[in-house]
Amino acid sequence: MSLIITAIHVLAALALIGVVLLQKGSGADMGAAFGGSSQNVFGAQGSGSFLGKLTAGLAGLFMLTSLTLAFFTTQEGAGVSVMDQGVAVEQPADAPTAADPSADVAPIPAKQAEPMAESSGAKPVPVGD
């Protein structure tokens, strides 16, 4: 059932895109007022009534299928939590755990804590005034 509603939803979305692109812009009448030509495909009254009603119908269908798909999605996963599933994450064998006392980190000796620039033989570059 969900697959059929998804197909209707996609078709309604594509049809809605097409109908919106077919409608004339609000500036088309201004071009005709200043001597330009006005192209009316749907008659002298224009496409306002037909395409407007078609857009409203497709938008209603799109919203209805959206709500229906959202309802079906919540019903399929109702009462199931990620925490309730009990999926354990496997850790590598060499990874230390919190209960392992041998996993304590030894402090770094003072000689190794020096900056890399001094131990590699690099000298600081003086900055000119």
TrEMBL record:
Q: Where are the transmembrane segments?
A: 51-73
Compartment(s) where it occurs, according to its Swiss-Prot or TrEMBL record:
Cell membrane
Here the segments flagged for biased composition (Low complexity) are 92-107
* Protein transport listed as a keyword: yes
- Please describe what this protein does: Involved in protein export. Participates in an early event of protein translocation.
Q: What is this protein called?
A: Protein-export membrane protein SecG
Q: Which family does it belong to?
A: Belongs to the SecG family.
What's a GO biological-process term for it? Answer: protein secretion
Species this chain originates from:
Magnetofaba australis IT-1
A GO term, aspect molecular function:
protein-transporting ATPase activity
In this record, what's one Pfam family? SecG
Question: Is Cell cycle a UniProt keyword of this protein?
Answer: no
Q: Which UniProt keywords apply?
A: Cell membrane, Membrane, Protein transport, Translocation, Transmembrane, Transmembrane helix, Transport
| Its membrane topology | Multi-pass membrane protein
Region (Disordered) residue spans: 91-129
UniProt main location, coarse: membrane
Q: Which GO terms describe its cellular component?
A: plasma membrane
